[in-house]
Amino acid sequence: MTDNNKVQYLALLRGVMPTGPNRIPKMSDLVQMLEQSGLDNVSSYIQSGNVICETSLPAEELAQHMHQVILESIGANLSIIVKEKSDLERAILGNPFSEELDSSRIHLVFTNNYISTEQLAELQVMNFMDEIFAVGTACLYMYLPRDAKKKKLNNNFLEKKLGIVATTRKLSVIKELSNRMDE
């Protein structure tokens, strides 16, 4: 639980890879680095760059702080998208897809950037064949069936089309992260 002047955040690290320049050797090392940098109650979930922490820093400053710590400590140049538990809850509740769809194929796309309604409207009329794109109040949504013939809809496509920095997580991961917050 956070004290009164601290906020609990989820930091979504964009572009974490198992090898190469954006490799995070071990999430436990990252947790230790971030704790040593002044963040409190730091924890991680799976190797793909999900970090929960507490701080009195505003979200934008936290993203910059974490970016700098990671860059200076291990050389990974990662974008960091910071959200509060209420953002995750809104994203989960706002899931526009029917329960008949395979929930393991639902992906949530988070960004810190503003996206214009014109850009979103342009995407919403595009034909993605079997894939489905939807806009929510807390995030964007993608349904990506395993058997989709042409996989066009993905994080990189959305970043280029919308001119944003974004990161994508499965619905099940966001539910688990939300449950882990304020534990």
TrEMBL record:
<dbReference type="InterPro" id="IPR012545">
    <property type="entry name" value="DUF1697"/>
</dbReference>
<dbReference type="Pfam" id="PF08002">
    <property type="entry name" value="DUF1697"/>
</dbReference>
<protein>
    <submittedName>
        <fullName>DUF1697 domain-containing protein</fullName>
    </submittedName>
</protein>
